[in-house]
Amino acid sequence: MPKRKAAIAVGGVAALGAAALLLPNANASQDKASRAAGTARTLKAADASDLAAQLQKALGDALAGSYYDSSKQQLVVNVVSGDKNVIVQAEKAGAAVRQVDNSTAELESAARTLKSRATVPGTAWAVDPRTNKVVVTADSTVTGAKWDRVQSTVRGLGSGMATLKRSSGSFKTFVSGGDAIFSQVQGGNVRCSLGFNVTASDGSPAFLTAGHCGVAAKQWSDSQNGQPIATVDQATFPGEGDFSLVKYDDPNTQAPSEVNAGNGQTVQINQAADATVGQTVFRMGSTTGLHNGQVTGLDATVNFQSETDPNGVDTVTGLIQTNVCAEAGDSGGSLFTQDGGAVGLTSGGSGDCTSGGETFFQPVTAALQATGATLGDGGNGAGGQAGAGDQAGAGDQAGAGAGDQAGAGAGAGDQAGAGDGSGAGDQAGGDQIGGGADPSATAGGDQSGTGEGTGTGAGDQSGAGDAASSADGSH
Question: FRET partner for 159 with CA separation of 20 to 30 A, picked from 107, 175, 275, 380?
């Protein structure tokens, strides 16, 4: 195989909408002015994430969660009422402090109760620090005795500890998205998404994708019915995560640390970044293109209906919960921040890009730590990337990729068909990256999209015939 560039791509670039640009001065909006001790600082989302990690390390379970207030650009930390010492330390660090009733230990106890009493397919739960409660979601398949069981468990925890809501769709894994990757298995083809290129612990080029993709098939190609170019090295699903490390078969493969936004444009990925509730994030997928939204929960537990056992459940823990839409064909694809932070790998969820829904992502930092891989290509344009837990603050980032985006429109070859891409109306102005807008701002609702686009990125996909469908094994 000739030496090739294995860029992370996303098809359906027309779904970017109008003027979806990453600006080179994206960090300029951060308020650098010094603040008096005890006054909440104005922070960019990436800095808020770093501060949250520092406070969590210093104060531990004395904190009852934190979130990013995008309207005020402040980190808000929850402290159980009466703990004056913790309040003073958090305020001196520059966070806004909110006194709450439920401690971390109490919220974790509630989650354990849910695990023992309400683990049924189609349910999920995560702590929402904005409400200081555990939010339990049940999809449309949870009915009858199963619904009664979940509802009774939530009621038993008390209205001040947990809430229950419905999801109109059904929780499922999404295979496909990003740069489409394919595998031939008994019964048909499987399609997933390449998430982020990495360097394996032995120095070989590799990439991360969803764990349920690595469990479904061992060898992967970059074209439908093509020869395999990569082999699964590690895969975790279900259990403590949903991630796979897949090594390129050709050790000379160039695997740059970037996301291909189509039409020859890329976003440089600088580091792995932990998610923060309230943070704006962006998801690339070959089915639905670029969509964005907010992180709504961390350390989420999701109970998928088992694909191998009709009466079984595949429970996955430690996921990021968001309101970013996704559809079949988006699994494994990249979740990232405006300033080039690799945040997550698409796992699954419910709903679609017309009605919205809940989606879940494997944290990249946890996947890197578990596999021993590092972001980047070992120095070929991506050296010095921070591994899990070592990410640099926003001020240390290389101002990446921001100026690398040339525009929203896809070239003729980047879209499978004129009718497949969503138009400019699919993205509200505040949701687009750039345009001088507040980088943390989002529009009120979820972006809509046709959900049918199979848009190819940089010629890596085979076109409309590659469209994901459940009958073809796409996830």
Answer: 275
